[in-house]
Structures are given as structure tokens and as C-alpha cells.
What we know:
Helix content: 40-55%
Largest sheet: 6 strands, mixed
Strand order of the largest sheet: 3-4-2-1-6-5
Structural class: alpha+beta
Oligomer: single chain
Order of helices and strands: HHEEEEHEE
Number of helices: 3
Number of strands: 6
Amino acid sequence: MDWNKDHIRETMLSLETAALNSARGSYLDYLSTARIDRTEPVENDEQAQAEVASDIAEALDDTLHDYSDKLEKLRTIDFGPKSAVAEGAVVKLSGRHFVIAVSTNKFTCRGRELMGISTMAPIFEAIEGAQAGETVQFNGRDVVVEDVE
């Protein structure tokens, strides 16, 4: 099956950019509620709410960095043709297609469903270097690499 990997990259970049923008909006919302107006007396409840909002904003900040890192990685990956499982490959396992790049939820690209797998994922370690038709072991099970592009 021939894949337009440029279109896959653009779809992944678009989805991750949208997720980054959404996370950034949430971050800014929480950050604004984490600030306390010091010109008026502060009640304990307000202080507690501001501290919780600050903690959430900090966690969202980490999420923003994760999305930024994913976007940078997607821009630099070689999505050229592959004969073995490597970064930039589209791999078919158990009837499903995966892009070896960054972890993503399932997404649709030109009517076909894919999912992104990070090179840090345990499944990648099991299939790295395998060619179409090879069987590898993952979590005690045989997994057939059906196709690599």
C-alpha cells in the first residue's frame, strides 16, 4: 500500500499544533486564575484556589513543552521510503497502521486510520529493524510485521 508520507507528516503536524494551541489556551486560563490580587485582603479559600490553579498551570506547562518537542521532531524526521522498521516508517501490525515518529492518538489521513508510535515506546524496541513478513516477540506474543514503507 503506497502512503503519501508528506501528507502524513502534514496531518500529524496539524493535529499536534492544534493540541499545542488548545493546551496553551488552557495554560493561560489557569495561569490567570493562579494570580492573586494583592491590593485586597486575601481569604484562605482564594489562596487555596490560586495554589491549585498554579499547580495545574505548571503541569500544563510540561504538556506545552511535550507538544513543542513533538512538533520539532516531526519537522526533522526522514519520512523517506523504508525497507525495515525505523523512524519515519509506516508499519502494518495486526491489520493496523502505525507511523514511527511521535506518540499520537489514532488519526485519519486520506481516509486511512493511523497511530503514531514514539521511538521510545516498548513496541518500537521489539519491532525496530524488522522487515515485512518477519515475526517478532512483544509482551510474550508473536507479532507479524505485515508491511513496512
